[in-house]
Fold this protein.
Amino acid sequence: MSRRMRSYYYALLGALGGLFGWQISDRLGLSFSTNLYLSELVVGALVGLSVGVCIGLTEGMLTRNPVQAVKSGLFSGLLGLGAGAIGLPLSEILFQFVGAGIFGRILGWALFGLLIGLAEGVVGKSQVWKGMLGGLLGGALGGFLLESAHSWLADPLAGKAAGLVLLGASVGAFISLIVVLLSKAWLEVASGKLKGTEFILDKFLKAGGPAIAIGSSPLKSEIVLPDPDIAPQHAMLTGDGVRFTLKDISLSGTYCNNKRIEQASLVNGQKIRMGNTELVYHEKR
């Protein structure tokens, strides 16, 4: 899926996460204790778990990589659980004792979004700070929309449902949007089953950083291309801080601009072919 459509799907899955979180907390009962903060902790944890899992699943689902989807969903869900358990009681404390009013609650939800963005940055292919920035902005906007929905809708349950859906959508959309706007390098699939999909490479550009494998196996490669003519691990990308070097490790060969290579430095617009799949390398200076 293209980088532009990524934000749409991140928003959609985030909204579903908010909806699931509301449904779970509603069915279990919105008041878990006479202690307001303990109740807020449990509700926040449930909402955070649902939003975190759904946003974490998104990248793996878009790239048809079930291993990444499960790993990202679990990790993001656990961080989301912690984020909600911290963020919602914190927003209530700021609201009740510091006199921050609605801004206190918005700050709590901003922290919630930041931690969701942290999880996405850790398991994704962009730099961690970009996910955190997107989550922070999305959480702040989503928190404002959530608190506003309470006053717009007369029914408190409807207001909570609408607010959590808007919160999840905002966090998901901004995490993706910031990553897309600030991305420096990415691979676009120009042909094959994943045509139009773009893999962001920012995390792997720095010198001494981890190499990234391209291949057909989700167990052996970080960038997975469902093509029977591509080896489980077909090629490796290594960054030096300025550019990427592509190294072929297959028997069938890797081609750059229709020339078979053993190793090549990538430049903007370069075409890469593996099996029956063609990719285009993009970078922003």
Q: What stands out?
A: The mean pLDDT is 87. Residues 63 and 194 are 7 Å apart (CA to CA).
